[in-house]
Amino acid sequence: MEVSSEKSKVMVSSERVNDASITMDDEPLELVHKFKYLGATLLEDGSSTVEVRTRIALATAAFAKLGKIWKSSISFKVKHKLFRSLVSSILTYGCETWTLLADTERRIQAFENKCLRKLLRISYKDHVTNESVRELVVAYVGPQEPLLATVKRRKLAWFGHVTRHDSLSKTILQGTVEGKRRRERQKKAWCDNIKEWTGMAMYELVRSASDRDAWRQKTDSSALRSPRRPHRSRD
Protein backbone atom coordinates (compact mmCIF):
# COMPACT_ATOMS: atom_id res chain seq x y z
CA MET A 1 0.00 0.00 0.00
CA GLU A 2 1.27 3.43 -0.91
CA VAL A 3 0.38 6.51 1.12
CA SER A 4 0.00 9.81 -0.70
CA SER A 5 1.78 12.64 1.11
CA GLU A 6 -0.27 15.19 -0.82
CA LYS A 7 -3.55 13.79 0.53
CA SER A 8 -2.31 13.13 4.07
CA LYS A 9 -3.01 15.60 6.87
CA VAL A 10 -2.27 15.76 10.57
CA MET A 11 -4.93 16.53 13.20
CA VAL A 12 -4.25 16.67 16.94
CA SER A 13 -7.02 15.71 19.33
CA SER A 14 -5.76 16.75 22.76
CA GLU A 15 -6.41 19.38 25.41
CA ARG A 16 -2.73 19.65 26.30
CA VAL A 17 -0.98 19.33 22.94
CA ASN A 18 -1.92 21.53 20.00
CA ASP A 19 0.91 20.90 17.60
CA ALA A 20 2.60 17.94 15.97
CA SER A 21 5.44 17.73 13.50
CA ILE A 22 5.13 14.72 11.20
CA THR A 23 6.98 14.36 7.93
CA MET A 24 6.54 12.06 4.95
CA ASP A 25 9.16 11.77 2.22
CA ASP A 26 11.06 14.50 4.06
CA GLU A 27 8.09 16.86 3.64
CA PRO A 28 6.10 18.16 6.65
CA LEU A 29 2.41 17.26 6.61
CA GLU A 30 -0.16 20.02 6.94
CA LEU A 31 -1.69 20.47 10.39
CA VAL A 32 -5.48 20.91 10.18
CA HIS A 33 -8.32 21.37 12.66
CA LYS A 34 -10.81 19.33 10.65
CA PHE A 35 -10.88 17.10 7.61
CA LYS A 36 -13.19 14.83 5.66
CA TYR A 37 -12.81 11.08 5.85
CA LEU A 38 -15.08 8.85 3.75
CA GLY A 39 -17.45 11.80 3.32
CA ALA A 40 -17.73 12.61 7.04
CA THR A 41 -16.30 15.74 8.66
CA LEU A 42 -14.02 15.00 11.63
CA LEU A 43 -13.10 17.72 14.15
CA GLU A 44 -10.15 17.87 16.49
CA ASP A 45 -12.43 18.12 19.55
CA GLY A 46 -14.30 14.96 18.51
CA SER A 47 -17.71 16.68 18.41
CA SER A 48 -20.38 15.86 15.82
CA THR A 49 -22.19 19.21 15.66
CA VAL A 50 -20.63 20.31 12.37
CA GLU A 51 -21.13 16.90 10.76
CA VAL A 52 -24.82 16.77 11.75
CA ARG A 53 -25.43 20.28 10.41
CA THR A 54 -23.61 19.38 7.20
CA ARG A 55 -25.74 16.24 6.78
CA ILE A 56 -28.93 18.25 7.35
CA ALA A 57 -27.79 20.83 4.78
CA LEU A 58 -27.06 18.13 2.20
CA ALA A 59 -30.40 16.44 2.85
CA THR A 60 -32.18 19.79 2.58
CA ALA A 61 -30.54 20.43 -0.79
CA ALA A 62 -31.54 16.96 -2.02
CA PHE A 63 -35.11 17.57 -0.85
CA ALA A 64 -35.24 20.91 -2.70
CA LYS A 65 -34.04 19.32 -5.95
CA LEU A 66 -37.05 16.99 -5.86
CA GLY A 67 -39.48 19.88 -5.51
CA LYS A 68 -41.38 18.98 -8.68
CA ILE A 69 -42.10 15.51 -7.32
CA TRP A 70 -43.36 16.87 -3.98
CA LYS A 71 -45.73 19.23 -5.83
CA SER A 72 -46.96 16.57 -8.27
CA SER A 73 -50.13 14.49 -8.03
CA ILE A 74 -48.20 11.36 -7.02
CA SER A 75 -49.69 9.68 -3.97
CA PHE A 76 -48.31 10.56 -0.56
CA LYS A 77 -47.29 6.93 -0.03
CA VAL A 78 -44.94 7.06 -3.01
CA LYS A 79 -43.62 10.48 -2.03
CA HIS A 80 -42.89 9.24 1.48
CA LYS A 81 -40.96 6.24 0.13
CA LEU A 82 -38.90 8.55 -2.08
CA PHE A 83 -38.25 10.84 0.87
CA ARG A 84 -37.02 7.96 3.03
CA SER A 85 -34.78 6.49 0.32
CA LEU A 86 -33.44 9.63 -1.41
CA VAL A 87 -33.37 12.24 1.37
CA SER A 88 -33.31 10.56 4.77
CA SER A 89 -30.49 8.25 3.69
CA ILE A 90 -28.30 11.28 3.02
CA LEU A 91 -28.89 12.69 6.48
CA THR A 92 -28.28 9.40 8.32
CA TYR A 93 -25.02 8.59 6.50
CA GLY A 94 -22.44 7.73 9.14
CA CYS A 95 -24.84 8.52 12.00
CA GLU A 96 -23.42 5.61 14.00
CA THR A 97 -20.42 7.82 14.83
CA TRP A 98 -22.38 10.85 16.04
CA THR A 99 -22.49 12.11 19.60
CA LEU A 100 -25.94 13.66 19.85
CA LEU A 101 -26.62 16.74 21.95
CA ALA A 102 -30.05 18.18 22.77
CA ASP A 103 -29.61 20.85 20.09
CA THR A 104 -28.67 18.40 17.34
CA GLU A 105 -31.61 16.16 18.24
CA ARG A 106 -33.96 19.13 17.88
CA ARG A 107 -32.43 19.99 14.50
CA ILE A 108 -33.01 16.47 13.19
CA GLN A 109 -36.61 16.49 14.40
CA ALA A 110 -37.21 19.96 12.95
CA PHE A 111 -35.84 18.88 9.57
CA GLU A 112 -38.13 15.86 9.38
CA ASN A 113 -41.19 17.85 10.50
CA LYS A 114 -40.50 20.49 7.86
CA CYS A 115 -40.19 17.87 5.11
CA LEU A 116 -43.35 16.03 6.14
CA ARG A 117 -45.29 19.30 6.07
CA LYS A 118 -44.02 19.92 2.54
CA LEU A 119 -45.11 16.44 1.44
CA LEU A 120 -48.55 16.97 2.97
CA ARG A 121 -48.75 20.55 1.69
CA ILE A 122 -49.35 21.88 5.19
CA SER A 123 -48.11 25.39 5.88
CA TYR A 124 -47.06 26.60 9.31
CA LYS A 125 -49.69 29.30 8.81
CA ASP A 126 -52.32 26.56 9.02
CA HIS A 127 -51.50 26.15 12.74
CA VAL A 128 -51.33 22.37 12.51
CA THR A 129 -49.25 20.81 15.28
CA ASN A 130 -46.38 18.41 14.64
CA GLU A 131 -48.34 15.70 16.45
CA SER A 132 -51.22 16.16 14.01
CA VAL A 133 -48.79 15.94 11.10
CA ARG A 134 -47.48 12.62 12.46
CA GLU A 135 -51.02 11.32 12.81
CA LEU A 136 -51.73 12.16 9.17
CA VAL A 137 -48.60 10.31 8.08
CA VAL A 138 -49.69 7.23 10.03
CA ALA A 139 -53.17 7.48 8.47
CA TYR A 140 -51.66 7.47 4.97
CA VAL A 141 -48.76 5.01 5.24
CA GLY A 142 -49.08 3.37 8.66
CA PRO A 143 -46.75 3.60 11.68
CA GLN A 144 -43.34 4.99 10.78
CA GLU A 145 -40.11 5.22 12.75
CA PRO A 146 -39.15 8.87 13.35
CA LEU A 147 -35.88 9.94 11.79
CA LEU A 148 -34.27 10.59 15.18
CA ALA A 149 -35.28 7.10 16.34
CA THR A 150 -33.60 5.67 13.23
CA VAL A 151 -30.37 7.45 14.14
CA LYS A 152 -30.55 6.12 17.71
CA ARG A 153 -31.36 2.57 16.61
CA ARG A 154 -28.44 2.45 14.20
CA LYS A 155 -26.06 3.79 16.82
CA LEU A 156 -27.29 1.29 19.42
CA ALA A 157 -26.97 -1.54 16.88
CA TRP A 158 -23.41 -0.48 16.11
CA PHE A 159 -22.54 -0.54 19.83
CA GLY A 160 -23.81 -4.10 20.06
CA HIS A 161 -21.92 -5.16 16.93
CA VAL A 162 -18.62 -3.72 18.18
CA THR A 163 -19.09 -5.13 21.68
CA ARG A 164 -19.59 -8.69 20.40
CA HIS A 165 -16.36 -8.75 18.36
CA ASP A 166 -12.74 -8.43 19.42
CA SER A 167 -11.39 -5.62 17.28
CA LEU A 168 -9.61 -2.28 17.39
CA SER A 169 -13.02 -0.58 17.45
CA LYS A 170 -13.91 -2.43 20.65
CA THR A 171 -10.59 -1.48 22.26
CA ILE A 172 -11.14 2.18 21.44
CA LEU A 173 -14.78 2.11 22.52
CA GLN A 174 -14.27 0.42 25.88
CA GLY A 175 -10.68 1.40 26.62
CA THR A 176 -9.52 4.03 29.10
CA VAL A 177 -6.53 6.36 29.18
CA GLU A 178 -4.26 7.39 32.01
CA GLY A 179 -4.73 10.67 33.78
CA LYS A 180 -7.42 12.56 35.67
CA ARG A 181 -10.55 14.11 34.25
CA ARG A 182 -10.78 17.88 34.32
CA ARG A 183 -12.80 19.42 37.11
CA GLU A 184 -15.12 21.39 34.83
CA ARG A 185 -18.27 19.96 33.29
CA GLN A 186 -17.35 17.04 31.05
CA LYS A 187 -18.14 16.98 27.36
CA LYS A 188 -20.72 14.44 26.32
CA ALA A 189 -19.01 11.31 25.05
CA TRP A 190 -20.22 8.86 22.40
CA CYS A 191 -21.13 6.24 25.01
CA ASP A 192 -23.07 8.77 27.08
CA ASN A 193 -25.83 8.62 24.46
CA ILE A 194 -26.01 4.84 24.81
CA LYS A 195 -26.26 5.09 28.59
CA GLU A 196 -28.97 7.77 28.42
CA TRP A 197 -31.12 5.97 25.86
CA THR A 198 -30.98 2.63 27.67
CA GLY A 199 -30.79 3.83 31.28
CA MET A 200 -27.95 1.37 31.86
CA ALA A 201 -24.38 1.62 33.14
CA MET A 202 -21.47 0.55 30.95
CA TYR A 203 -20.94 -2.83 32.61
CA GLU A 204 -24.66 -3.59 32.13
CA LEU A 205 -24.47 -2.52 28.49
CA VAL A 206 -21.52 -4.78 27.74
CA ARG A 207 -23.23 -7.75 29.35
CA SER A 208 -26.55 -7.09 27.62
CA ALA A 209 -25.02 -6.50 24.17
CA SER A 210 -23.33 -9.91 24.24
CA ASP A 211 -26.75 -11.49 23.58
CA ARG A 212 -27.61 -10.52 20.01
CA ASP A 213 -31.36 -11.18 20.17
CA ALA A 214 -31.82 -9.51 23.56
CA TRP A 215 -29.81 -6.49 22.42
CA ARG A 216 -31.90 -6.17 19.27
CA GLN A 217 -35.04 -5.93 21.40
CA LYS A 218 -33.32 -3.43 23.69
CA THR A 219 -32.28 -1.39 20.67
CA ASP A 220 -35.80 -1.20 19.24
CA SER A 221 -37.36 -0.13 22.56
CA SER A 222 -34.61 2.33 23.55
CA ALA A 223 -34.61 4.10 20.17
CA LEU A 224 -38.24 5.15 20.66
CA ARG A 225 -37.99 5.93 24.37
CA SER A 226 -37.43 9.42 25.72
CA PRO A 227 -33.93 9.84 27.19
CA ARG A 228 -33.40 9.74 30.93
CA ARG A 229 -30.46 10.27 33.22
CA PRO A 230 -27.96 7.37 33.15
CA HIS A 231 -26.89 5.49 36.26
CA ARG A 232 -23.79 6.88 37.87
CA SER A 233 -20.84 4.53 37.98
CA ARG A 234 -17.06 4.54 37.94
CA ASP A 235 -16.69 2.75 34.65
Automatic annotation (TrEMBL):
It comes from the Eukaryota. One of its GO terms (molecular function) is endonuclease activity. Keywords: Endonuclease, Hydrolase, Nuclease. Residues 226-235 have a biased composition (Basic residues). It comes from Elysia marginata. Residues 211-235 are annotated as: Disordered. This is Endonuclease-reverse transcriptase.
